Amino acid sequence: MSLAVMPEVTGLDVAEVGKYGPYRPEAYNSLPTLSVAGTAYETQDAEKLLFGPMRQLFLDHNVQDTYGVVLLHNHFDIDPEDRLVERRGISVLWSFGDVIQNTTH
């Protein structure tokens, strides 16, 4: 099961792009499908962890309005020239084709 604590991103500055290292489509492709991740969530009783010690940790450090927990999963594989881009609260696939290949060499 893959759970990640993610800071809330509001208005990411263009200067921030690449701050966390190069974009790696293979990292996204290595995530389990939603079905597999959901099954792991249920079989490993993640809800008990989230609403118990994880919740308390967030409250103890007063970060419940800053951070959230997400179930990492994928819906499809992406190619090296593709990027997942958030658009109106939804991640959509954008293909950059030659643009990416020309800037990475």
Can you offer a commentary on this structure?
It is a single chain. 34% of the residues lie in helices and 21% in strands. The chain is of the alpha+beta class. It has a two-stranded antiparallel ribbon with strand order 1-2. The protein is built from four helices and four strands. It has a domain at 3-11 and 21-79.
Record the SSE blueprint.
Blueprint: E1 3-7, H1 25-29, H2 34-43, H3 46-60, E2 67-71, E3 82-87, E4 90-95, H4 98-103
Antiparallel strand pairs: 1-2, 3-4
Compute the separation of the termini in Å.
35 Å
> Which residue ranges are poorly predicted, with pLDDT under 50 across at least 5 consecutive positions?
2-12
How confident is the prediction overall: mean pLDDT? 80
User: What's the SSE pattern?
Assistant: EHHHEEEH
Tell the overall outline. extended
Structural category:
alpha+beta
Largest sheet report = 2 strands, antiparallel
